[in-house]
Amino acid sequence: MASSLATIESFVEGAPPGERHRADTDRPLRNLTDIKTLTVHEPSLVSELGPAFEKYNEEQLATVKLPGSSQQVVISSHNSLGDGRYFDVESSSSFAFDHATQSASDVQSYVLDGAQADLVKSTLKNLSTYVQEHYPNASYGVCPTENDTKVAIIIVANKYSPNNYWNGRWRSLYIFDPSSGSLEGSIKVDVHYYEDGNVRLLTNKPIASSVSSDTGAGICKEIATGEKKYQEELNRGFTSLSEGAFKSLRRQLPVTRQKIEWDRVASYRVGQDIGGGSSRR
Amino acid sequence: MAAVDPFDSALDLLRRLNPKHTSEHLNALIALAPDLTEDLLSSVDQPLAVRRCRQSGRDYLLCDYNRDGDSYRSPWSNEFDPPLQDTPASAGEEQSNAAGLPSEKVRRMEIRANEAFDLYRELYYEGGVSSVYFWNLDDGFAGVVLLKKVATPGTSSEGTWDSIHVFEAIDRARFTQEHDETDRDRAAAESDEQQIANIGKLVEDMELKMRNLLQEVYFGKAKDVVGDLRSVGSLSESARDREAQRDIIGSMKR
Q: Is the pTM of this model over 0.90?
């Protein structure tokens, strides 16, 4: 049996996108409001959710506006400095991040140096162009990772429309290894549509490819190719879902392409016992 | 702050957690707030469980309406499995007995409804399991039509369809059937068929509506949202195209 803490942690982790569509207010996760109501008898439980919020924000690639800036920066395990601080290469700043309220404070100058610094900067430049070309509204980040031996590339696009009962999130995360030229990662799409229901699209596409030219342009070209291919695959999937898997569950109409003639069906087989057993005792 | 009903919070969470794991979430919520057990189990639909009828060898579906304690009634044999401790007395003509067996008249209709929906299941689901359960009301009867289909395991796609349709049929025609015995029997028989046909049409229309809603609206919406998140084509090119289109429309107006 899972502990109560594990249970409410799983409720935080399972929160759909768009829980906080107004990023400028410090309204907490809506799931948290419900969790608080359900644990009123044990209020201390909620105070133990810190690690769950951190995990949620880093996995969901939460975005935050730095004070005095209009651009969103991304939160991930790769740009973490520890102790709740994160850095952003493009704005050359580091900041404290409150995982419970998803707000940033205490911005300081952060200058990137090290073995991957040049590759990070050139990738960032190319990624910015690519993102503008294909994402109407996305945040992105590039940073050194794994002790400055590799480069992490992140794109996250959110679109929230709570008035129309839907929210969506696209997350791309890649790790480029300059020593082997390998580019590995995943694309995750999460769409929640909840008008009169609860419909969720959750996809996870692992990406494994290699980059021939060890440059920011080469990396971004490979990313662009892979993402285009995946989105086209996904669109085909919607069609085959309607025509294939969904149809194999339940047909839209019987093979005759006509609705059932119930007046005949209801009198059909009348008087016969059904199954193997007798209906009369 | 006004106190929020924990039951509402639980339902609110279930509307936003991954619907694929509703049963797990439901069990977690019950463990967290045991007071809500009864309310949650009666208001949250879970995937239907299947059991094989010992008498007929046919599969049937389990729900609260064919349950008595830990036993479930098969619509094919009318027997509970495991058998009930106290064997129920023979049901009266117009009312259910204590064990939840429908009256003889309603059971006759239930048998016909199971036959009719077995055919419906074959025509629409080409497999799967169906079960219909009826029970008596003071002024008529009520019932539930259950359908389940699991996509063939081992194929490229996985999926499950569960349908639960609950209805009430209020008997308004009873006073018109006060004729002699044979007449009444025939009137009752015709009325049974008519009732089943009515239920069938309702279920068929509702399922068609739901299926279209899922395919056109929900799947279509998910596809649109993905397109809103990322554009397959170049955004600057499509902006240029729109600009060019505006110019053409503008020049035609002049």
A: no
**Mean per-residue pLDDT, B177-201:** 66
Q: Are A266 and B16 inside 8 Å of each other by CB? A: no
Residues B28, B113, single domain; the answer is no
B180-189 residue pLDDT tens: 444 444 445 5
**Helix H or strand E segment including A156:** strand A150-161
**Mean pLDDT computed over A172-190:** 97
Whether residue B157 is contained in a domain is answered as: yes
Nearest CA in chain A to B220: A238
Structural domains in chain A plus CATH codes:
4-109 (3.30.1140.60), 117-246 (3.90.1150.210)
| Interface-testing mutation among A134, A233, A265, with chain B (most B C-beta atoms within 10 A) | A265
Each residue of A224-281: pLDDT tens digit?
Answer: 999 999 999 999 988 888 777 888 899 999 998 999 999 888 665 544 433 333 333 3
Query: Does residue B142 belong to any structural domain of this protein?
Result: yes
In a domain, B51, yes or no: yes
pLDDT higher than threshold 50 for residue B14:
yes
**Are the beta carbons of B58 and A249 separated by less than 8 Å?**
no
Contact B200 A193 (CB under 8 A): no
